[in-house]
């Protein structure tokens, strides 16, 4: 049924970069055979899923939305891919994304944009716009995203779906193509809070192949999602997550959510987190710095595209020609920015300062979580904007992640879930819930209560 739905709508939506029809049917049949043989089935047996094209898959290409990896089929499965297979999930294919997960609209994909199923002329968010669009268009009931600065939560918000950025280290990054390693985190995307929790439990947990993976039990997310409640909870509203640039309908739906939390028995506390105002600036130094180092591996020798290798050119020239042809504008912008910020003489002024700001943000969160159990905010300041509107204005694009970035810098957990439609344009609005590190279960407890 999901393959038929993909056939019917994906030409317009363009959520998928690759659909693995044969593989999906074979996996589904294998589940049936197991069931008939009375064998033990995985926890998500037979449930179809759309996988962001940033996770390596042995039996499908992995492009990361870039021409530089066009046609590359990895020799190994990411830990997350392996866990999905072990849970008997049926992987339908790989979803579209901003190139190397850099963007907030999926317009930076080298393979063309994805449409928002609510209005195909608008963006589905990014970088995980393909995964969110697949859910919103009913092409898949579950999807996987990655969130470096908001790429799970912002697409969830603008497509009316649920997305969770787990605690940093909660889901293995082994086999997840690196953008900014100290921020990148894979996580579940779904249409309901409980569905997200069921997927979260399958993909989370310690992995010796990832040195930053947390060696501790997975927070009890499914139990929390089945027992939604905010009775007696302290909920924080941060004053920095408001003001200029926030759309009226987004603010209205957010305020209604705060009232709903109160009526369900929560106490609302106003919080001051002054360092959050610096989060965007710090992020756009740290993320490009790490990316400039991570993307150095795309040298035309190891994988993917190779341009100009005609026997007359040096290896350096082939690398340069390949990068020129294979990387898009936003990726080049970030590599240049990151290389500059890390260069001797500028390192302390830029990268060093950004790391200090990161510590201040973490401290603001620590102080906040002495007073409250969770923090709530709008996920993103506006609803889905038209395709093309911000494409030539990187600063305007970066503002989409104003409310999501502090969480990545601090490494804690956050969810976005739908909280109604904005009256002025009828488009979905996202409510963000933020919890301390390794308290991901609180997101589901609160999310299930207000869903
Ligand atoms: N939009 C942000 C960026 O462009 C976040 C991307 C992400 O979370 N992968 O970096």
TrEMBL record:
<keyword id="KW-0648">Protein biosynthesis</keyword>
<comment type="subunit">
    <text>Heterotrimer of A, B and C subunits.</text>
</comment>
<keyword id="KW-0067">ATP-binding</keyword>
<dbReference type="InterPro" id="IPR004412">
    <property type="entry name" value="GatA"/>
</dbReference>
<dbReference type="GO" id="GO:0050567">
    <property type="term" value="F:glutaminyl-tRNA synthase (glutamine-hydrolyzing) activity"/>
</dbReference>
<dbReference type="GO" id="GO:0050566">
    <property type="term" value="F:asparaginyl-tRNA synthase (glutamine-hydrolyzing) activity"/>
</dbReference>
<dbReference type="Pfam" id="PF01425">
    <property type="entry name" value="Amidase"/>
</dbReference>
<dbReference type="InterPro" id="IPR036928">
    <property type="entry name" value="AS_sf"/>
</dbReference>
<keyword id="KW-0547">Nucleotide-binding</keyword>
<keyword id="KW-0436">Ligase</keyword>
<comment type="similarity">
    <text>Belongs to the amidase family. GatA subfamily.</text>
</comment>
<dbReference type="InterPro" id="IPR023631">
    <property type="entry name" value="Amidase_dom"/>
</dbReference>
<comment type="function">
    <text>Allows the formation of correctly charged Gln-tRNA(Gln) through the transamidation of misacylated Glu-tRNA(Gln) in organisms which lack glutaminyl-tRNA synthetase. The reaction takes place in the presence of glutamine and ATP through an activated gamma-phospho-Glu-tRNA(Gln).</text>
</comment>
<feature type="active site" description="Charge relay system">
    <location>
        <position position="52"/>
    </location>
</feature>
<dbReference type="InterPro" id="IPR020556">
    <property type="entry name" value="Amidase_CS"/>
</dbReference>
<dbReference type="InterPro" id="IPR000120">
    <property type="entry name" value="Amidase"/>
</dbReference>
<feature type="active site" description="Acyl-ester intermediate">
    <location>
        <position position="151"/>
    </location>
</feature>
<protein>
    <recommendedName>
        <fullName>Glutamyl-tRNA(Gln) amidotransferase subunit A</fullName>
        <ecNumber>6.3.5.7</ecNumber>
    </recommendedName>
</protein>
<feature type="active site" description="Charge relay system">
    <location>
        <position position="127"/>
    </location>
</feature>
<feature type="domain" description="Amidase">
    <location>
        <begin position="1"/>
        <end position="443"/>
    </location>
</feature>
């Amino acid at each position: 049924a999901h393959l038929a739905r993909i056939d019917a709508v994906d030409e317009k939506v363009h959520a998928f970069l690759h659909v693995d029809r044969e593989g999906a049917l074979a996996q589904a049949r294998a589940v049936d055979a197991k069931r008939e043989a009375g064998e033990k089935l995985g926890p998500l047996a037979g449930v179809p899923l759309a996988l962001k094209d940033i996770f390596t898959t042995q039996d499908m290409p992995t492009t990361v939305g870039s021409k530089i990896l066009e046609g590359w089929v990895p020799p190994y499965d990411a830990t997350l891919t392996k866990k999905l297979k072990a849970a008997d999930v049926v992987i339908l294919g790989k979803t579209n994304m901003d190139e190397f997960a850099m963007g907030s609209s999926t317009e930076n994909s080298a393979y063309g944009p994805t449409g928002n199923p609510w209005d195909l002329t608008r963006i589905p968010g990014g970088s995980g716009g393909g995964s969110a669009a697949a859910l919103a268009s009913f092409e898949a009931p579950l999807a996987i995203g990655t969130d470096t600065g908001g790429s799970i939560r912002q697409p969830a918000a603008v497509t009316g779906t649920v997305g969770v950025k787990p605690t940093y280290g909660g889901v293995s990054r082994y086999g997840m193509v690196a953008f900014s390693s100290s921020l990148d985190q894979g996580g579940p995307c779904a249409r309901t809070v409980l569905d997200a929790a069921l997927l979260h439990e399958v993909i989370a947990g310690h992995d010796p192949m990832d040195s930053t993976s947390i060696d501790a039990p997975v927070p009890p997310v499914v139990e929390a999602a089945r027992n939604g409640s905010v009775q007696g909870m302290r909920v924080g509203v941060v004053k920095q997550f408001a003001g200029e640039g926030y759309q009226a309908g987004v603010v209205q739906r957010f305020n209604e959510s705060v009232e709903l939390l109160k009526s369900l028995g929560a106490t609302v506390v106003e919080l001051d987190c002054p360092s959050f105002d610096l989060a965007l600036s710090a992020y756009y130094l740290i993320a490009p710095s790490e990316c400039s180092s991570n993307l150095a591996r795309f040298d035309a020798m190891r994988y993917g595209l190779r341009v100009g290798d005609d026997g007359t050119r040096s290896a350096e020239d082939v690398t340069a020609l390949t990068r020129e042809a294979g990387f898009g504008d936003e990726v080049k912008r970030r590599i240049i920015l990151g290389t500059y910020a890390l260069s001797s003489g500028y390192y302390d002024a830029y990268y060093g300062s950004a790391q200090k700001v990161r510590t201040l943000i973490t401290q603001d969160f620590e102080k906040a979580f002495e007073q409250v159990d969770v923090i709530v905010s709008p996920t993103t300041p506006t609803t889905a904007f038209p395709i093309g509107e911000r494409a030539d204005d990187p600063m305007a694009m970066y503002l989409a992640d104003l409310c999501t970035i502090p969480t990545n810098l601090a490494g804690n957990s956050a969810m976005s879930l739908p909280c109604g439609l904005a009256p002025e344009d009828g488009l979905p609005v996202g409510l963000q819930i933020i919890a301390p590190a390794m308290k991901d279960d609180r997101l589901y407890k609160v999310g299930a209560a207000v869903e």
